[in-house]
Amino acid sequence: MSVKIDALRRPLVQPRPTRCFASGPLRPLYSQRLPQRAVALFAIRTLVTDNKQTTPKTKQYSAIVVGAGASGIAVTGSLLDHLGHGSRIAWVDPDFLGGRINACYREVPSNTIAQTFLDYGKGFESFRRAAQAMSEPNGLTKLEALEPKSTCSLHHAGDMLQTLSDGLRRDERVSGLKGAVVKASWAKGLAEWAMTIQGKNSKSPTTHHLVAPLVVYCTGSHPATVKLPTPSTETPKNLGLDDVLKPSVLRTTLPKDRPVTVGVIGASHSAILVLRNLLDLARDSHPQLRVRWFTRHTELKYAQYMDGWILYDNTGLKGLAAEFGRQYLEGDQLAKSGAGEIITRVDCSGGAEQEKAAFLRELPQCDHIVQAVGFTRNELPEMEAEVEFDNTTGGFVDRATGQKVPGLFGAGIAFPEKVTDKAGNVEYAVGFFKFMKFLKRVVPSWVGIDQKPAK
Ligand SMILES: Cc1cc2nc3c(=O)[nH]c(=O)nc-3n(C[C@H](O)[C@H](O)[C@H](O)COP(=O)(O)OP(=O)(O)OC[C@H]3O[C@@H](n4cnc5c(N)ncnc54)[C@H](O)[C@@H]3O)c2cc1C
Questions:
Q1: How many angstroms separate the alpha carbon of residue 288 from the centre of ligand 1?
Q2: What is the pLDDT of residues 254-301, one digit of tens each?
Q3: Shortest-distance Cα residue to atom 19 of ligand 1
Q4: What InterPro entries does its record include (predicted)?
Protein backbone atom coordinates (compact mmCIF):
# COMPACT_ATOMS: atom_id res chain seq x y z
CA MET A 1 0.00 0.00 0.00
CA SER A 2 1.11 3.49 -0.56
CA VAL A 3 0.90 5.24 2.76
CA LYS A 4 4.20 7.01 3.40
CA ILE A 5 5.88 7.41 6.74
CA ASP A 6 7.58 10.74 7.09
CA ALA A 7 10.68 9.28 8.67
CA LEU A 8 10.99 6.92 5.75
CA ARG A 9 10.59 9.25 2.88
CA ARG A 10 11.80 12.72 2.17
CA PRO A 11 8.75 14.95 2.14
CA LEU A 12 8.13 17.56 -0.50
CA VAL A 13 9.76 20.19 1.64
CA GLN A 14 11.87 19.44 4.67
CA PRO A 15 9.83 19.03 7.88
CA ARG A 16 10.75 20.45 11.20
CA PRO A 17 12.39 17.68 13.20
CA THR A 18 9.95 15.86 15.44
CA ARG A 19 10.98 13.94 18.53
CA CYS A 20 9.07 10.79 19.08
CA PHE A 21 10.72 9.68 22.25
CA ALA A 22 11.45 11.11 25.62
CA SER A 23 15.14 11.54 26.27
CA GLY A 24 17.23 10.87 29.35
CA PRO A 25 19.62 8.29 30.75
CA LEU A 26 18.88 4.69 29.87
CA ARG A 27 18.67 2.06 32.51
CA PRO A 28 21.09 -0.83 32.04
CA LEU A 29 19.83 -3.42 29.62
CA TYR A 30 19.27 -7.08 30.12
CA SER A 31 19.41 -10.36 28.39
CA GLN A 32 18.03 -10.75 24.87
CA ARG A 33 16.09 -13.70 26.27
CA LEU A 34 14.28 -11.48 28.71
CA PRO A 35 10.76 -11.80 27.35
CA GLN A 36 10.88 -15.57 27.90
CA ARG A 37 12.32 -15.11 31.37
CA ALA A 38 9.71 -12.49 32.09
CA VAL A 39 6.85 -14.64 30.85
CA ALA A 40 8.08 -17.40 33.15
CA LEU A 41 8.25 -14.89 35.99
CA PHE A 42 4.66 -13.96 35.25
CA ALA A 43 3.60 -17.58 35.33
CA ILE A 44 4.95 -17.93 38.88
CA ARG A 45 3.54 -14.62 40.04
CA THR A 46 0.20 -15.23 38.56
CA LEU A 47 -0.43 -18.03 41.08
CA VAL A 48 -0.36 -15.52 43.86
CA THR A 49 -1.06 -12.13 42.38
CA ASP A 50 -3.10 -12.56 39.22
CA ASN A 51 -5.75 -9.89 39.16
CA LYS A 52 -4.81 -8.72 42.65
CA GLN A 53 -3.55 -5.26 43.26
CA THR A 54 0.15 -5.43 44.11
CA THR A 55 -0.04 -1.80 45.26
CA PRO A 56 -3.19 0.24 45.17
CA LYS A 57 -4.40 0.24 41.56
CA THR A 58 -1.30 -1.61 40.32
CA LYS A 59 -2.11 -4.73 38.36
CA GLN A 60 0.16 -7.40 36.99
CA TYR A 61 -0.22 -8.66 33.43
CA SER A 62 1.65 -10.89 31.00
CA ALA A 63 1.63 -8.17 28.37
CA ILE A 64 0.33 -4.67 27.79
CA VAL A 65 -0.82 -3.67 24.30
CA VAL A 66 -1.05 0.07 23.71
CA GLY A 67 -3.49 1.05 20.96
CA ALA A 68 -6.49 -0.71 19.40
CA GLY A 69 -6.31 0.08 15.70
CA ALA A 70 -5.60 -2.56 13.05
CA SER A 71 -2.18 -3.28 14.55
CA GLY A 72 -3.21 -3.33 18.23
CA ILE A 73 -6.01 -5.74 17.37
CA ALA A 74 -3.53 -7.99 15.54
CA VAL A 75 -0.99 -7.85 18.37
CA THR A 76 -3.63 -8.72 20.96
CA GLY A 77 -4.81 -11.63 18.78
CA SER A 78 -1.28 -12.87 18.24
CA LEU A 79 -0.40 -12.71 21.93
CA LEU A 80 -3.56 -14.63 22.82
CA ASP A 81 -2.45 -17.34 20.39
CA HIS A 82 1.09 -17.47 21.77
CA LEU A 83 0.78 -16.91 25.51
CA GLY A 84 -0.45 -19.71 27.73
CA HIS A 85 -3.91 -20.15 29.22
CA GLY A 86 -3.00 -18.47 32.52
CA SER A 87 -1.81 -15.33 30.79
CA ARG A 88 -3.55 -11.97 31.01
CA ILE A 89 -3.29 -9.14 28.53
CA ALA A 90 -4.02 -5.52 29.37
CA TRP A 91 -5.18 -3.63 26.30
CA VAL A 92 -5.31 0.15 26.44
CA ASP A 93 -6.94 2.57 24.00
CA PRO A 94 -9.00 5.74 24.50
CA ASP A 95 -11.96 4.38 22.52
CA PHE A 96 -11.63 0.81 21.17
CA LEU A 97 -13.28 1.95 17.94
CA GLY A 98 -10.84 0.43 15.46
CA GLY A 99 -8.31 3.30 15.35
CA ARG A 100 -7.86 5.66 12.41
CA ILE A 101 -9.65 3.54 9.83
CA ASN A 102 -12.93 4.21 11.61
CA ALA A 103 -12.08 7.68 12.87
CA CYS A 104 -10.86 9.07 9.54
CA TYR A 105 -11.06 6.74 6.54
CA ARG A 106 -14.54 5.27 6.43
CA GLU A 107 -15.27 7.16 3.21
CA VAL A 108 -11.95 6.22 1.59
CA PRO A 109 -11.79 3.50 -1.09
CA SER A 110 -9.44 0.68 -0.10
CA ASN A 111 -6.28 -0.07 -1.99
CA THR A 112 -6.36 -3.74 -1.03
CA ILE A 113 -9.01 -6.21 -2.13
CA ALA A 114 -11.74 -7.46 0.21
CA GLN A 115 -10.08 -10.90 0.35
CA THR A 116 -6.96 -9.37 1.93
CA PHE A 117 -9.07 -7.89 4.73
CA LEU A 118 -10.70 -11.30 5.20
CA ASP A 119 -7.29 -12.98 5.32
CA TYR A 120 -6.44 -10.61 8.16
CA GLY A 121 -9.81 -11.07 9.86
CA LYS A 122 -9.42 -14.84 9.98
CA GLY A 123 -5.65 -14.99 10.31
CA PHE A 124 -5.38 -15.87 14.00
CA GLU A 125 -7.11 -18.58 15.98
CA SER A 126 -8.08 -15.93 18.55
CA PHE A 127 -9.69 -13.85 15.76
CA ARG A 128 -11.83 -16.78 14.68
CA ARG A 129 -12.94 -17.28 18.31
CA ALA A 130 -13.60 -13.56 18.70
CA ALA A 131 -15.80 -13.52 15.60
CA GLN A 132 -17.76 -16.50 16.86
CA ALA A 133 -18.44 -14.62 20.09
CA MET A 134 -20.21 -11.89 18.11
CA SER A 135 -23.76 -12.11 16.82
CA GLU A 136 -24.35 -12.12 13.06
CA PRO A 137 -24.45 -10.23 10.82
CA ASN A 138 -21.23 -8.55 11.89
CA GLY A 139 -18.26 -6.80 10.28
CA LEU A 140 -16.71 -10.08 9.20
CA THR A 141 -19.82 -11.71 7.78
CA LYS A 142 -20.60 -8.52 5.85
CA LEU A 143 -17.09 -8.50 4.42
CA GLU A 144 -17.56 -12.12 3.36
CA ALA A 145 -20.54 -11.05 1.26
CA LEU A 146 -18.42 -8.68 -0.87
CA GLU A 147 -16.76 -9.58 -4.14
CA PRO A 148 -13.45 -10.94 -2.78
CA LYS A 149 -11.23 -9.79 -5.65
CA SER A 150 -12.50 -6.21 -5.64
CA THR A 151 -11.45 -3.26 -3.54
CA CYS A 152 -14.12 -1.82 -1.26
CA SER A 153 -14.91 1.16 0.90
CA LEU A 154 -12.75 1.20 4.02
CA HIS A 155 -15.89 1.32 6.17
CA HIS A 156 -16.15 -2.43 5.52
CA ALA A 157 -12.63 -2.93 6.86
CA GLY A 158 -13.49 -0.64 9.78
CA ASP A 159 -16.58 -2.66 10.66
CA MET A 160 -14.50 -5.83 10.63
CA LEU A 161 -12.00 -4.21 13.02
CA GLN A 162 -14.84 -3.25 15.33
CA THR A 163 -16.17 -6.81 15.36
CA LEU A 164 -12.72 -8.22 16.16
CA SER A 165 -12.03 -5.57 18.77
CA ASP A 166 -15.34 -6.21 20.56
CA GLY A 167 -14.90 -9.97 20.29
CA LEU A 168 -11.34 -9.94 21.66
CA ARG A 169 -12.37 -7.80 24.59
CA ARG A 170 -14.86 -10.52 25.53
CA ASP A 171 -11.98 -12.99 25.92
CA GLU A 172 -11.49 -13.67 29.61
CA ARG A 173 -7.72 -13.24 29.24
CA VAL A 174 -8.08 -9.68 27.90
CA SER A 175 -8.71 -6.64 30.07
CA GLY A 176 -9.63 -3.62 27.95
CA LEU A 177 -8.91 -0.32 29.63
CA LYS A 178 -10.17 2.96 28.15
CA GLY A 179 -7.50 5.60 28.47
CA ALA A 180 -4.06 6.64 27.30
CA VAL A 181 -0.72 5.31 28.45
CA VAL A 182 1.13 8.44 29.48
CA LYS A 183 4.27 7.06 31.09
CA ALA A 184 6.38 3.92 30.83
CA SER A 185 9.35 2.95 32.95
CA TRP A 186 11.44 -0.18 33.17
CA ALA A 187 11.76 -1.65 36.68
CA LYS A 188 15.16 -3.30 36.64
CA GLY A 189 14.78 -5.49 39.72
CA LEU A 190 11.45 -6.93 38.63
CA ALA A 191 12.36 -7.06 34.94
CA GLU A 192 9.09 -5.50 33.96
CA TRP A 193 7.54 -2.34 32.60
CA ALA A 194 5.42 -0.10 34.81
CA MET A 195 2.86 1.87 32.83
CA THR A 196 0.78 4.82 33.96
CA ILE A 197 -2.61 5.10 32.31
CA GLN A 198 -4.79 8.15 32.35
CA GLY A 199 -8.37 6.89 32.33
CA LYS A 200 -10.65 8.53 29.78
CA ASN A 201 -14.20 8.36 30.95
CA SER A 202 -14.32 10.27 34.17
CA LYS A 203 -14.66 13.87 35.19
CA SER A 204 -11.59 13.75 37.39
CA PRO A 205 -9.25 11.51 35.39
CA THR A 206 -8.30 8.29 37.14
CA THR A 207 -4.77 6.99 37.01
CA HIS A 208 -4.08 3.27 36.71
CA HIS A 209 -0.77 1.52 37.16
CA LEU A 210 -0.08 -1.67 35.27
CA VAL A 211 3.04 -3.81 35.18
CA ALA A 212 4.08 -6.42 32.64
CA PRO A 213 7.30 -7.88 31.27
CA LEU A 214 6.21 -7.22 27.70
CA VAL A 215 4.79 -4.04 26.18
CA VAL A 216 3.80 -3.44 22.56
CA TYR A 217 3.28 0.04 21.16
CA CYS A 218 0.65 0.09 18.40
CA THR A 219 0.10 3.79 18.76
CA GLY A 220 -0.41 4.83 15.14
CA SER A 221 0.52 7.90 13.11
CA HIS A 222 -1.13 11.06 11.85
CA PRO A 223 -0.66 13.15 8.69
CA ALA A 224 2.60 15.08 8.63
CA THR A 225 2.75 18.76 7.80
CA VAL A 226 5.76 20.74 6.70
CA LYS A 227 6.60 24.40 6.89
CA LEU A 228 6.00 25.94 3.51
CA PRO A 229 8.10 28.70 2.00
CA THR A 230 5.32 31.25 2.19
CA PRO A 231 5.35 34.61 0.48
CA SER A 232 4.82 37.77 2.52
CA THR A 233 1.15 37.86 1.55
CA GLU A 234 -1.40 35.92 3.55
CA THR A 235 -0.66 32.21 3.96
CA PRO A 236 -3.41 29.86 2.75
CA LYS A 237 -5.32 28.05 5.46
CA ASN A 238 -4.45 24.42 6.04
CA LEU A 239 -7.23 21.93 5.34
CA GLY A 240 -6.56 18.81 7.38
CA LEU A 241 -5.85 15.78 5.21
CA ASP A 242 -8.24 13.68 7.31
CA ASP A 243 -11.12 16.04 6.52
CA VAL A 244 -10.40 16.22 2.81
CA LEU A 245 -10.46 12.42 2.67
CA LYS A 246 -14.09 12.62 3.84
CA PRO A 247 -16.27 13.88 0.96
CA SER A 248 -19.16 14.48 3.37
CA VAL A 249 -17.02 16.91 5.42
CA LEU A 250 -15.32 18.49 2.42
CA ARG A 251 -18.67 19.35 0.86
CA THR A 252 -19.63 21.52 3.83
CA THR A 253 -16.16 22.99 4.41
CA LEU A 254 -15.72 24.72 1.05
CA PRO A 255 -18.03 27.48 -0.22
CA LYS A 256 -20.29 26.70 -3.19
CA ASP A 257 -21.17 30.20 -4.22
CA ARG A 258 -17.81 31.89 -4.75
CA PRO A 259 -14.46 31.10 -6.31
CA VAL A 260 -12.16 29.05 -4.08
CA THR A 261 -8.78 27.56 -4.88
CA VAL A 262 -7.27 24.63 -3.00
CA GLY A 263 -3.59 23.73 -3.29
CA VAL A 264 -2.78 20.03 -2.96
CA ILE A 265 0.79 19.02 -2.13
CA GLY A 266 2.04 15.54 -2.92
CA ALA A 267 1.63 12.61 -5.31
CA SER A 268 1.11 9.75 -2.88
CA HIS A 269 -1.99 7.56 -2.54
CA SER A 270 -3.62 10.09 -0.19
CA ALA A 271 -2.81 13.04 -2.48
CA ILE A 272 -4.41 11.33 -5.47
CA LEU A 273 -7.53 10.51 -3.43
CA VAL A 274 -7.72 14.17 -2.39
CA LEU A 275 -7.53 15.28 -6.05
CA ARG A 276 -10.25 12.78 -6.87
CA ASN A 277 -12.51 14.12 -4.10
CA LEU A 278 -11.93 17.72 -5.18
CA LEU A 279 -12.61 17.00 -8.86
CA ASP A 280 -15.83 15.18 -7.94
CA LEU A 281 -16.88 18.09 -5.76
CA ALA A 282 -16.16 20.69 -8.46
CA ARG A 283 -18.19 18.71 -10.98
CA ASP A 284 -21.07 17.87 -8.63
CA SER A 285 -21.79 20.89 -6.47
CA HIS A 286 -18.91 23.41 -6.30
CA PRO A 287 -18.48 24.75 -9.86
CA GLN A 288 -16.19 27.59 -8.77
CA LEU A 289 -13.71 25.28 -7.07
CA ARG A 290 -10.25 25.14 -8.64
CA VAL A 291 -7.22 23.07 -7.63
CA ARG A 292 -3.49 23.66 -7.90
CA TRP A 293 -1.59 20.41 -7.65
CA PHE A 294 2.00 20.78 -6.41
CA THR A 295 4.01 17.75 -7.45
CA ARG A 296 7.68 16.90 -7.86
CA HIS A 297 6.94 13.95 -10.08
CA THR A 298 6.50 14.05 -13.81
CA GLU A 299 5.11 10.50 -13.70
CA LEU A 300 3.02 8.79 -11.05
CA LYS A 301 4.22 5.56 -9.45
CA TYR A 302 1.91 2.55 -9.70
CA ALA A 303 1.99 -0.82 -7.99
CA GLN A 304 2.81 -3.40 -10.67
CA TYR A 305 1.50 -6.94 -10.39
CA MET A 306 4.36 -9.27 -11.30
CA ASP A 307 4.53 -13.05 -11.30
CA GLY A 308 3.60 -13.82 -7.67
CA TRP A 309 4.78 -10.51 -6.20
CA ILE A 310 4.01 -6.79 -6.42
CA LEU A 311 6.52 -4.18 -7.49
CA TYR A 312 6.06 -0.98 -5.42
CA ASP A 313 3.59 -2.84 -3.23
CA ASN A 314 3.82 -0.24 -0.46
CA THR A 315 4.57 2.93 -2.38
CA GLY A 316 2.76 2.59 -5.72
CA LEU A 317 -0.80 3.64 -6.46
CA LYS A 318 -3.43 0.91 -6.31
CA GLY A 319 -7.18 0.56 -6.66
CA LEU A 320 -9.28 3.63 -7.46
CA ALA A 321 -6.35 5.98 -6.86
CA ALA A 322 -4.40 4.20 -9.62
CA GLU A 323 -7.42 4.27 -11.93
CA PHE A 324 -7.89 7.99 -11.29
CA GLY A 325 -4.20 8.67 -11.90
CA ARG A 326 -4.22 6.88 -15.24
CA GLN A 327 -7.50 8.40 -16.37
CA TYR A 328 -7.00 12.03 -15.33
CA LEU A 329 -3.46 12.87 -14.27
CA GLU A 330 -0.92 10.86 -16.24
CA GLY A 331 0.92 12.51 -19.15
CA ASP A 332 -1.45 14.80 -21.02
CA GLN A 333 -4.58 13.23 -19.50
CA LEU A 334 -5.36 16.36 -17.49
CA ALA A 335 -6.01 18.23 -20.73
CA LYS A 336 -7.51 15.30 -22.63
CA SER A 337 -9.95 14.28 -19.90
CA GLY A 338 -11.17 17.79 -19.19
CA ALA A 339 -9.97 17.57 -15.56
CA GLY A 340 -7.46 20.27 -16.49
CA GLU A 341 -10.31 22.81 -16.38
CA ILE A 342 -10.39 22.25 -12.62
CA ILE A 343 -6.88 21.00 -11.75
CA THR A 344 -3.71 22.89 -12.69
CA ARG A 345 -0.47 21.05 -12.24
CA VAL A 346 2.34 23.02 -10.56
CA ASP A 347 5.70 21.55 -11.46
CA CYS A 348 7.89 21.27 -8.36
CA SER A 349 10.53 19.06 -9.98
CA GLY A 350 14.12 20.09 -10.50
CA GLY A 351 15.33 20.52 -6.92
CA ALA A 352 14.80 22.58 -3.80
CA GLU A 353 15.24 26.02 -5.38
CA GLN A 354 12.77 25.35 -8.19
CA GLU A 355 10.31 23.94 -5.67
CA LYS A 356 10.61 26.97 -3.42
CA ALA A 357 10.09 29.30 -6.38
CA ALA A 358 6.97 27.36 -7.38
CA PHE A 359 5.51 27.70 -3.87
CA LEU A 360 6.31 31.41 -3.66
CA ARG A 361 4.72 31.99 -7.04
CA GLU A 362 1.63 29.81 -6.65
CA LEU A 363 0.66 29.84 -2.97
CA PRO A 364 -0.80 33.39 -3.15
CA GLN A 365 -3.34 31.98 -5.66
CA CYS A 366 -4.57 29.43 -3.08
CA ASP A 367 -7.22 30.01 -0.39
CA HIS A 368 -6.53 26.65 1.22
CA ILE A 369 -3.76 24.11 1.17
CA VAL A 370 -3.86 20.34 1.77
CA GLN A 371 -0.63 18.61 2.65
CA ALA A 372 -0.44 14.94 1.71
CA VAL A 373 3.26 14.54 2.40
CA GLY A 374 3.44 11.48 4.62
CA PHE A 375 2.62 10.36 8.13
CA THR A 376 4.36 10.95 11.41
CA ARG A 377 4.24 8.82 14.56
CA ASN A 378 1.87 9.78 17.33
CA GLU A 379 3.60 10.90 20.48
CA LEU A 380 4.73 7.99 22.63
CA PRO A 381 4.31 7.75 26.39
CA GLU A 382 6.97 9.52 28.40
CA MET A 383 10.03 7.29 28.85
CA GLU A 384 13.39 7.61 30.51
CA ALA A 385 15.33 6.37 27.50
CA GLU A 386 15.56 7.68 23.99
CA VAL A 387 14.89 4.65 21.86
CA GLU A 388 14.89 3.76 18.19
CA PHE A 389 12.71 1.20 16.45
CA ASP A 390 14.36 -1.82 14.86
CA ASN A 391 12.15 -2.47 11.85
CA THR A 392 13.44 -5.98 11.27
CA THR A 393 12.70 -7.44 14.73
CA GLY A 394 9.94 -5.14 15.98
CA GLY A 395 12.07 -4.32 19.03
CA PHE A 396 13.66 -1.09 20.20
CA VAL A 397 17.28 -0.12 20.66
CA ASP A 398 18.66 2.46 23.05
CA ARG A 399 20.04 5.33 21.01
CA ALA A 400 22.79 6.06 23.52
CA THR A 401 24.18 2.54 23.93
CA GLY A 402 22.91 0.71 20.85
CA GLN A 403 21.64 -2.09 23.10
CA LYS A 404 18.28 -3.80 22.80
CA VAL A 405 15.58 -2.43 25.09
CA PRO A 406 14.10 -5.36 27.04
CA GLY A 407 10.47 -6.32 26.62
CA LEU A 408 9.48 -3.34 24.44
CA PHE A 409 8.12 -3.81 20.91
CA GLY A 410 6.19 -1.93 18.26
CA ALA A 411 3.88 -2.68 15.33
CA GLY A 412 1.57 -0.98 12.87
CA ILE A 413 1.83 2.14 10.78
CA ALA A 414 4.08 3.80 13.37
CA PHE A 415 6.39 0.79 13.54
CA PRO A 416 6.26 -1.09 10.25
CA GLU A 417 8.48 -3.87 8.98
CA LYS A 418 11.24 -2.98 6.54
CA VAL A 419 10.99 -5.16 3.44
CA THR A 420 13.05 -5.55 0.27
CA ASP A 421 11.23 -6.66 -2.87
CA LYS A 422 12.58 -8.92 -5.61
CA ALA A 423 13.81 -5.91 -7.55
CA GLY A 424 15.81 -4.73 -4.51
CA ASN A 425 13.51 -1.83 -3.57
CA VAL A 426 13.36 -1.17 0.16
CA GLU A 427 9.92 -0.24 1.48
CA TYR A 428 8.02 -0.20 4.76
CA ALA A 429 5.15 -2.65 4.94
CA VAL A 430 1.94 -0.81 5.85
CA GLY A 431 -1.44 -2.48 5.66
CA PHE A 432 -3.59 -4.79 7.80
CA PHE A 433 -2.36 -8.07 6.36
CA LYS A 434 1.25 -6.90 6.30
CA PHE A 435 1.10 -6.08 10.01
CA MET A 436 -0.20 -9.60 10.58
CA LYS A 437 2.52 -11.19 8.44
CA PHE A 438 5.20 -9.33 10.38
CA LEU A 439 3.68 -10.38 13.70
CA LYS A 440 3.55 -14.02 12.65
CA ARG A 441 7.29 -13.85 12.10
CA VAL A 442 8.39 -11.86 15.14
CA VAL A 443 5.95 -12.49 17.99
CA PRO A 444 7.32 -16.00 18.74
CA SER A 445 10.69 -14.41 19.51
CA TRP A 446 9.06 -11.59 21.51
CA VAL A 447 7.47 -14.10 23.87
CA GLY A 448 10.51 -16.37 23.93
CA ILE A 449 8.98 -19.32 22.09
CA ASP A 450 11.30 -19.07 19.13
CA GLN A 451 14.91 -19.64 20.22
CA LYS A 452 16.23 -17.88 17.14
CA PRO A 453 16.10 -14.09 17.18
CA ALA A 454 13.81 -12.66 14.47
CA LYS A 455 15.80 -11.70 11.38
C1 LIG B 1 -5.74 6.91 3.18
C2 LIG B 1 -5.35 5.56 3.69
C3 LIG B 1 -5.82 4.41 3.08
C4 LIG B 1 -5.46 3.16 3.54
N5 LIG B 1 -5.95 2.06 2.90
C6 LIG B 1 -5.59 0.83 3.33
C7 LIG B 1 -6.07 -0.35 2.69
O8 LIG B 1 -6.81 -0.29 1.73
N9 LIG B 1 -5.68 -1.56 3.17
C10 LIG B 1 -4.84 -1.67 4.24
O11 LIG B 1 -4.52 -2.80 4.61
N12 LIG B 1 -4.37 -0.58 4.86
C13 LIG B 1 -4.72 0.66 4.44
N14 LIG B 1 -4.22 1.77 5.06
C15 LIG B 1 -3.26 1.60 6.11
C16 LIG B 1 -3.90 1.18 7.41
O17 LIG B 1 -5.21 1.47 7.48
C18 LIG B 1 -3.35 1.91 8.53
O19 LIG B 1 -2.02 1.72 8.42
C20 LIG B 1 -3.88 1.36 9.83
O21 LIG B 1 -5.15 1.89 10.09
C22 LIG B 1 -2.94 1.70 10.93
O23 LIG B 1 -3.35 1.01 12.05
P24 LIG B 1 -2.56 1.20 13.41
O25 LIG B 1 -3.21 0.27 14.37
O26 LIG B 1 -1.11 1.05 13.21
O27 LIG B 1 -2.81 2.71 13.83
P28 LIG B 1 -4.18 3.48 14.20
O29 LIG B 1 -5.32 2.99 13.43
O30 LIG B 1 -3.84 4.93 14.12
O31 LIG B 1 -4.43 3.08 15.72
C32 LIG B 1 -3.63 3.56 16.78
C33 LIG B 1 -4.46 3.53 18.05
O34 LIG B 1 -3.59 3.75 19.16
C35 LIG B 1 -4.23 4.65 20.06
N36 LIG B 1 -3.19 5.29 20.87
C37 LIG B 1 -2.21 6.13 20.46
N38 LIG B 1 -1.45 6.50 21.51
C39 LIG B 1 -1.94 5.87 22.59
C40 LIG B 1 -1.58 5.85 23.99
N41 LIG B 1 -0.55 6.55 24.44
N42 LIG B 1 -2.32 5.10 24.84
C43 LIG B 1 -3.38 4.36 24.38
N44 LIG B 1 -3.76 4.35 23.08
C45 LIG B 1 -3.05 5.09 22.19
C46 LIG B 1 -4.98 5.60 19.14
O47 LIG B 1 -5.99 6.29 19.84
C48 LIG B 1 -5.53 4.62 18.10
O49 LIG B 1 -6.76 4.08 18.49
C50 LIG B 1 -4.58 3.05 4.64
C51 LIG B 1 -4.11 4.20 5.26
C52 LIG B 1 -4.48 5.45 4.78
C53 LIG B 1 -3.93 6.65 5.45
A1: 34
A2: 999 999 999 999 999 999 999 999 999 999 999 999 999 999 988 999
A3: 413
A4: Agnestin_monoxygenase, FAD/NAD-bd_sf
